[in-house]
Amino acid sequence: MEQFIAQYEPANEQERADQRQMLACIEAFDDVLTRNNTIAHFTSSGMIFNAARTHVLMIYHNIYDSWGWTGGHADGEADLLSVATREVLEETGVHATPITRDIISLDVLNVPAHVKKGQFISSHLHLNVTYAFEADEAAAVTLNEEETSGVAWLAIDELHAHVKEEHMKPIYDKLVARVRALS
Questions:
Q1: What is the full DSSP assignment across 35-56?
Q2: With contact defined as beta carbons under 8 Å apart, do 46 and 68 qualify?
Q3: pLDDT averaged over 10-residue windows placed end to end, the chain, 183 residues
Q4: DSSP β-ladder status, 55-61 and 66-68
Q5: What is the model's pTM?
Q6: Phi/psi of residue 131, each to 5°?
Q7: For the domain that residue 150 is a member of, what is the CATH number?
Q8: Domain that residue 146 falls in
Q9: What's the number of domains the chain is made of?
């Protein structure tokens, strides 16, 4: 994992800074792959595109009260592509294929304090690695009712109208531009 993060070619200053912070956390902590590290831990996300790159499959996150990408905690797994792939299936029911096995984005995300399953979770950082996937728009989707209340293909042109988390909009824009550049 550390090797892939170190070899990632940052596209801008934000990613350069986040890459440095991720590598520093790996160096400083021996538990960044688990939630035992309540300061910062690794997560992996999947941005799921249709073949035409006009729509993305998103879930409605109950905790964030917004439409967003799929993803989850590494929970000890160093293969972050496997984590993202697992989360895509768990959160949408869709079998998606990686567009590339390469990381497409590095982002250090602030997670505000919240309550999850009746337990208070202090604010912390998600050291997030993102991968791009492609899925068939006609595939049946399945709602994971434990964490989400919606699964839908959203038009990329209308994405900002659906996303309530302002800090995520530029990240999604960055991911869309990167994936379209790959096509």
A1: TT-SSEEEEEEEEEE-TTSSEE
A2: no
A3: 96 97 98 97 99 98 92 97 98 98 98 90 97 98 91 98 97 97 87
A4: antiparallel
A5: 0.95
A6: -125, 155
A7: 3.90.79.10
A8: 2-182
A9: 1
